[in-house]
Amino acid sequence: MANLPVLNDARILVIDDEPDLRTLYELTLLREGYRVETAGSVQEARDQLGQQRFDAIITDMRLPDGSGTDILAQLRAEQRPERCVVITAYGSAENAVESLKAGAFDYLSKPVDLKQFRAVVANALQGNAFTPPVPSRNPPLKTPHSGATASAEAALAKMVGTSGVMTQVKDRIVKVARSMAPVLIRGESGTGKELVAGAIHANSHRVQGPWVPVNCSAIPENLLEAEFFGARKGAYTGANQDRVGFFQAAHGGTLFLDEIGDLPLAMQSKLLRAIQERSVRPLGALQEEQVDVRIVSATHKDLAAEVQAGRFRQDLYYRLNVIDIYIPPLRERCEDLPALCRALLIRIAAESGIPAPQLSAPALAQICTLPLPGNVRELENVLHRAMALSEGPVLELDTHALNTQPQALREEPEQPAAPDIAAALALPLPLASSLPESIPSDLQVHLDRIERDILVRTLRETRFNRTSAAQRLGISLRQIRYRMARLQIDVPNASDEPSDA
Questions:
Q1: pTM, to two decimals
Q2: Domain 4-125 is classified in which CATH homologous superfamily?
Q3: Which of 59, 62, 181, 458 might form a disulfide with 100, Cβ 3.0–4.6 angstroms?
Q4: Is 355 exposed, middle or buried (0-12, 13-18, 19+ CB in 10 A)?
Q5: pLDDT (tens digit per residue) in 431-469
């Protein structure tokens, strides 16, 4: 690596009261070329911190005169830039979560795997070490977002709104992006949870690594394990080559698990183990593979209620919900609607190749009275409809533009009656032309072939517009993207549709 000589200038403080472990960590780091100082207690560490600055700190959670959280509290109180990695006892999830909430960059569980130890230390140094010494013990805080790159600023700018709650969300994004702590994003459908997750990635030291968004609700249950952890050739029928899973694809970057609340319980336990052990075993493999990913998840569900109902594992919820970001619905931030409408009209007009119209004051007032349960997606539909029904440079809304939901969806749906199985069995079979001449030897391959043919035909009929094709098929844009990737359907000259996050 070209920057290795610079990395080797890093100074690291190791804090552990066990001499054997302290020596092991010190020798491991010295072999990497780092400069290492050691301390056996909180007081010794404070003495070292009072004398010099470090590029990273590694501390045991339990110390004879305190704990690792005492070190974290001092770093925070003195506004010091050092990133801290905390070592916790094996299986102590409470300590790990406590340390991350207290400001730790990352944590390791005992017994410490030295390969993982070196990787976590390297991550802590990335983007934080090798800055010139700061003369003052208490340097002034940076202004919000001042150190953000252009891509980070662009990611934050996508979240339109200057209300107090949105300003808090943006500030929280910048703060949580600095650590490895898992983040759970909560909010109703259409509030922009994927935009928030993308902004966390863009503002983190992992921005140069892969960004892998996954819609957990769009993956068939029988494919979840292969999709998440990968598979070896021959692991199952139709596995003609090795398959890389989401965890391997996100190595060194961020794995975004959207609609995490829709994962089946069986898969939740496997996901929990992958997060805890930081390793996965592909289907058909004998050895586990170490993975270095930052987990960001999102849901529109109340996961605490799902835990109480037994539909979501409490231990997984505990792991994912280290840092919580709540995105309020549009009805709770009406002051953002003017700017949001303006941004959406500019985008819609650009896609249509026409000048962006203005929204009249009465029309904006009408929008502010709408419940908009679909939030930004529903607002975009309202504006699309208004542009189609209006003439001239100023948009007005009528009753047609305001009817954002079919009547059936506005009323409380009745519980469907139990199906009559005898009647279902009496239904005529599909036309013979739609059935294979003989029973397929591999049903999944046969169904994949049928699904691929339908997708390709629909894409051709819609001139390879994925948004239109998804609407024709009655599925979401995210679902058609997933199916196209799974079935290896390439779209020639495809334009990037707007995200449906």
A1: 0.63
A2: Response regulator (3.40.50.2300)
A3: 181
A4: exposed
A5: 444 556 667 776 777 787 888 889 888 988 888 888 888
